[in-house]
Amino acid sequence: MTNREKKCKDLVSSEWKDRQKDLKNPEFEALCFDYVEADTFSDQKEGYWRWQFSWGGPSDELRAYVNRDDSIHRLEYWYLDWFDGAKVNVAAEHPAWSQIQEMINSTAPGMVANG
Q: Which CA distances in Å does 77 have to 16, 74, 109, 111?
């Protein structure tokens, strides 16, 4: 089966493994870092900070769900391709937690609590 025939759930773990190599590179530049309000997409009850790495088909991103004090309570890596998507939960011990927490703190502290 080629990668084109595989579903996102079949690819998400290997894509996350590859993306982690990029995150270790200080020269790596992602596409954007922004906040996605709750209810932006159907069935999306909770807002999240999005660190988007690629866009189109396929695309991938980290989603940080935060408490009212801006601390992350859940971090997910998402791999998405036309009408398909899958995620893996990122362990709190992973360096990506501190990377994205630092980005949240320096970008818009208090935005979620005040929003």
A: 7, 10, 22, 22
